[in-house]
Every structure is written in C-alpha cells, then in structure tokens.
Amino acid sequence: MAIAIAFIACHNLQFPSKIATPATVTVKLSGWGGSPIEQKLLKGVIKDFEAQYPTIKVKYEVISDQYMDVIKTRLVGEAAPDVFYLETLEAPLLMSQNVLEPLDIYITPEFDLADFKVNLLNSFKYQNHIYGLPKDYSTLALFYNKKAFAAAGLNNPPTTWDELRNYSQLLTGKLNRYGLGITPELVRQAYKIKAFGGQIVDQNSQAVFASEASLRGLQLVIDQYQKDHSSAQKSDVGTNSGSEMFGQGKVAMVIEGNWAIPYLTETFPQLEFATAEVPTINGKKGTMLFSVAYVMNKQSQHKAEAWKLISYLTGKEGMQKWTGTGFALPTRESVAQKLGYDQDTLRKPLVAGVNYATPWQVGDYPAAIVNNFDNQFVSALLGQQPLKQAMLRAQNAANQQIKAME
Question: Which residues partner with 311 through β-bridges?
Fold first, then answer.
C-alpha cells in the first residue's frame, strides 16, 4: 500500500507535458470575381485578419459566373459559405427567406454601428433586424471632359437636367461625336423615375413603373436620344461600357460610379476629366446607390468565427485597409473622413450623393422587373414603339412572371 501511495503521489506531480494548442477553425468566404486589383486587395486584408486571429483560417472562394444562382443553390442544399457577398439588389428576397443570420446579437457598442452611413445600412435591414454590413459603396456622378468643355466655351458643369441637355447639344460634333454617353438599363434610370414621384415597385413587389410620373422621367432620356441626337449608347460608338466611350473620347460626358476613376486614370492617363454631382431633375437631387454587404449563412457551423471575420472586414481597421487605395468608398463616416474622400476633387460628388441617393433595390423579384424593363425601354429608345406602350408591356410581363413565382 505504501508503494502504491508513493506511486500515485509521484504520478500527481504533473510532470511538464505538451500544452494543448487551440484548434484552428476554417471560415469559408465567397464573393464574385471583380477585378484582379480587388482580389489582391481583399487577400491582403484577409492575411492581416489571420495574423490577428491565428486560430481562424479564411478560405476565400471566387465564384466567377452566375454568382447569385450558385449561392441560392448552395443555400437550399445547406452547402453555402459561412460568409458571402450580397448586393443591395438581391438583399430583399434573401433577407425575407430565413437563410441569413441576423447580426444584431453580435454587434456590440465597441463596433460603433452609428459610424455607418444610415442610407447604406438601411438597405440591409429587414423587420428591424440587420442582416448585412456594407463593405463599400458607390453612387453615380457626372464625369466630363475638361478639354471638350473648354473648346465649347463651357466653364462649369451643368447643375440641372435642362442645362445638361443644352450642354450635350453644344458638345456634340466638336471634340467628341456626342455630348452624353447613356446606359439605358433600369439600374441607371431609377432615380429619374423617382424625380417625378414615380416608383418601380409597390410595397407588394409588383411593377408600377408605367405610371405617368415614371414616364416623365424616362421621356427625358428618349427625347435627348431621338430629338436632340446628342447622346449615344455604348453600342452606337463600338465600346463596351460608358467609361470606355468616355475614355476614348466618343462622348464628352457620362454618368458613372467610383469604379470609373481608377479605370480612366490607368487606361487613359492623358485624359483630363473632372466630376460633379448628377444634375437635378424636376428641381430634385438624385443619383443611384450601389452597395455590397458581408452576410452570414444561418446554417454556418462557425458563427462566432464568421462574425469575427465580418466585424474585422467592416470594422474601422479592416475598412481603412480595404478602401485606402481609392478602389472603393468606405461605408463608415470616420474612415471616409480619415481618408479625406469627402474633400477629394474626383470623389467628393460621389460621397455627397449618398445622402439623397436611390438604393438599387426593386423588391423581391428583381430579375422579372429588370429584364422586362430593360428589353422594352431599349426598344422605345430606338423608336421601335412609343414609350408608354413599351412600359405597359414591360410592367404587365413582369407582374405575370411575379404572380407565377409567388
């Protein structure tokens, strides 16, 4: 017995042993491709996160084609990533389907939610819950060619839509073939519809864009294209985007987003251009608001770690790293001020627009709304049918498709 007690005593001395290391958790993050610059930037921020949280590894996956279809399929099959991109357009449907984790319970006072621009945060709220935290945004601004303006004797950018139409006529056929480059899709027309009190969808997600108020805003685009002949689509001048037709000097003005700035400065270094807020329509300021949020999969097995990743990427430190090059605009007021974007000569109009912009959301059935509008509006723009007829056709077709999906 004495020997046994001695053995137990020695055994309980707890000789030094290997200290157990915490298990590493892998969080899967998915997003669309974007540009190589964007991917490189995000990978750098993820690397900083992993250095700060050594027990969390991030598996970053790029879904290069049919992004939302892939995400929706995986959500149904319970194989979706822990964290993924969600743009404002697709947010309403997913937020209402009980597939996203509400982030309210994770948000602490230290996270400083009040630092986010309200208009952006509201795009990812549903039934008083926050389902996404916006990582960046862009509005639209007027880009104009300074040499073309000087040649036409124009000293300042237009401030009203009537002035813009007048400027376009003065600029057409001078240094540029056309005064204004236009993008006819709904994504660039929604604020014009709103300017006269029109709506795209009602509270039940039904299409209502064929109203008289909506048509007044859209008629501005038709008249300039058909009567003035001072505007052009990208297909009219053989380019792939509004930014490209502006950069190539095919048009003197375009209405584009923050993404155009690095593209133009890198691709067309000799181009002298400036920006201004979008001219007022019907006495009202207007522009579009585009944003992408990080959201959490409700079925995630690593919610605590997923939240740490989201809170870092959208926190002050992570956001400053992500938006510090000017590739994207920060959704936090403090970061925007620190980086000086509200005073940046090219980005100032884009930042100013966030306070009155129309978020790019068109209800729970965006594909039906957008596809039918785009097809019929382009037809009206080309003079193939009257605008009112085109919009009624689009509205009816959209609502028929929505009824079939409900």
Answer: none
Strand partners, 296: 83
Count of positions (residues) in the chain: 406
**What's the pTM value of the predicted model, to 2 decimals?**
0.91
Cβ neighbours, 10 Å, residue 22: 7
- Provide the CATH number for the domain around residue 50: 3.40.190.10
Q: Which of 392, 398, 388, 369 has its CA nearest to residue 222?
A: 388
The answer to whether the beta carbons of residues 380 and 308 sit under 8 Å apart is no
142-178: b or e for each residue (b if 16 or more CB lie within 10 Å)? bbbbebbbeebebeebbeebeebbbbbbbbbeeebbb
Question: Does 297 share its domain with 282?
Answer: no
The tens place of each residue's pLDDT in the chain, 406 residues long, gives 344 434 334 444 444 444 445 689 999 999 998 778 888 899 999 999 999 999 999 999 999 899 999 999 999 988 999 999 999 999 999 999 999 999 999 999 999 999 999 999 999 999 999 999 999 999 999 999 999 999 999 999 999 999 999 999 999 998 889 999 999 999 999 999 999 999 999 999 999 999 999 999 999 999 999 999 999 999 999 999 999 999 999 999 999 999 999 999 999 999 999 999 999 999 999 999 999 999 999 999 999 999 999 999 999 999 999 999 888 999 999 999 999 998 999 999 999 999 999 999 999 999 999 999 999 999 999 999 999 999 999 999 999 999 999 8
* Whole-number Å distance between alpha carbons of 137 and 121: 11
Q: Which two tokens stand for residue 375?
A: 């097809």
Residue 308 resides in a domain: yes
My answer on whether 228 and 150 are in the same domain is yes
Q: Look at the chain and report how many structural domains it folds into.
A: 2
Is the CB of residue 92 less than 8 Å from the CB of residue 361?
yes
Within 305-350, strands assigned E span: none
Helices and strands counted in the chain (H then E): 17, 12
